From TrEMBL:
Role summary: May play an important role in centriole assembly and/or stability and ciliogenesis.
Stated name of the protein: POC1 centriolar protein homolog A
Cited CDD domains: WD40 (cd00200)
A GO term from the CC aspect: centriole
Gene name for this UniProt entry: Poc1a
Family: Belongs to the WD repeat POC1 family.
Keywords assigned by UniProt, alphabetized: Coiled coil, Repeat, WD repeat
């Protein structure tokens, strides 16, 4: 079955710049040149919220991993964190000195990375809402910045025609990819964390392996590519282009699967839902569209399962690389599987369950640590207050 248009949201009064799904797919956020952030409900007959606060165009939006916050960046040089409820309260981050083009949460929800026309990439802590540090080696506007799935790396794309990979801890640029013939509009990590894809004004999408720093795939289009998003299985990539089309690329086969026409005028942004069964797109026609993915529904469920079980002891995924290198496709491996004996399959199933249980426990631990960290911050702040008050009392006594 081909991808199909599922919902159609109208309400923005200017070009849509950015779209993102919440974790549970109940909400979709969009930003627009009309200076508003909209939160659409995926449930029919539920009203949309329009959040006003930015003084100029909203360039980017993203839900936090938990879905309890939405970050936005704007031409007014600020980043805002919103609570996506009726009140639509927000707090403002100020450190950039020009338009903020991109916002992205780390997968643990603790950090935020932003990219700006001031040529810098900045990293912030979410719960302390504090600016941490800048990465500043780009020599032109930075259009996009993303954390790797494990949070150890940052990738950024710029009008200086480079894509840079940074080590978050050492804050150093590990590698620059300079193969783009034009500005680089968008970049993102493959779910495995081993590859990145970048889209540019030279009408191309390029996929690089960041371990060997080599180009894996190159797709030549016939229009500027504005945005891209990996399917959670890591096997597909969706792109949005100035020729008004969305394209779905099959990364295993290395070919174009579908071209979708929906927008009138440039398609500016696109994003898969966290489960991959939907994707959303926005355009300069002020419209937000939600599409049902439909392709290989059975297959990518299996793919996600095999990827979970395909995690090495050291936590690295090995699925994508082998597939890209040997061109082995999951469909083939499935037919071979049927020849294996039953016990082996049962053993593997129990192993998968155990691994999934461990992953679940790890998630709980991560959340606990984050809560403890937040409490610690509060305690530190209180302590600081007490000490400051003490100082004041002493000074008053002395004066």
């Amino acid at each position: 079955e081909d991808p199909s248009l599922e919902r159609h949201f109208k309400g923005h009064r200017d070009a849509v710049t950015s779209v993102d799904f919440s974790l549970n797919k109940k909400q979709l956020a969009s930003g627009s040149m009309d200076s508003c952030l909209m939160i659409w409900s995926m449930r029919p007959q539920m009203r949309a919220y329009r959040f006003v606060g930015h003084k100029d165009a909203v360039m980017c939006v993203q839900f936090s991993p938990s879905g309890h916050l939405v970050a936005s960046g704007s031409r007014d040089k600020t980043v805002r964190l919103w609570v996506p409820s009726i009140k639509g309260e927000s707090t403002v981050f100020k450190a950039h000195t020009a338009t903020v083009r991109s916002v992205h949460f780390s997968s643990d929800g603790q950090s935020l990375v932003t990219a700006s026309d001031d040529k810098t990439v900045k990293v912030w802590t979410v719960h302390r809402q504090k600016f941490l540090f800048s990465l500043s080696q780009h020599i032109n506007w930075v259009r996009c910045a993303r954390f790797s799935p494990d949070g150890r790396l940052i990738v950024s794309a710029s009008d200086d025609k480079t894509v840079k990979v940074w080590d978050k801890t050492s804050r150093e640029c590990i590698h620059s990819f300079c193969e783009h013939g034009g500005f680089v509009n968008h970049v993102d990590f493959h779910p495995s964390g081993t590859c990145i894809a970048a889209a540019g004004t030279d009408n191309t999408v390029k996929v690089w392996d960041i371990r060997m720093n080599r180009l894996l795939q190159h797709y030549q289009g016939n229009a500027v590519v504005n945005s891209l998003s990996f399917h959670p299985s890591g096997n597909y990539l969706v792109t949005a282009s100035n020729d008004s089309t969305l394209k779905i690329l099959d990364l295993l086969e290395g070919r174009l699967l579908y071209t979708l026409h929906g927008h009138q005028g440039p398609a500016t942004c696109v994003a898969f839902s966290r489960a991959g069964d939907l994707f959303a797109s926005g355009g300069s026609d002020e419209q937000v569209m939600v599409w049902k993915t439909n392709f290989d529904a059975a297959d990518y469920g299996d793919v996600l399962k095999t990827q979970k079980s395909g995690t090495n002891v050291d936590g690295t995924h090995h699925t994508l690389q082998s597939e890209m290198d040997c061109g082995v496709h999951l469909k083939k491996t499935k037919t071979q599987d049927s020849g294996r004996n039953h016990e082996q399959q049962e053993e593997e199933a129990s192993l998968v369950n155990t691994l999934e249980h461990i992953m679940g426990q790890l998630d709980v631990l991560t959340q606990t640590v984050s809560i403890l960290e937040q409490r610690l911050t509060l305690t530190e702040d209180k302590l600081k207050e007490c000490l400051e008050n003490q100082q004041k009392i002493i000074q008053n006594k002395m004066s």
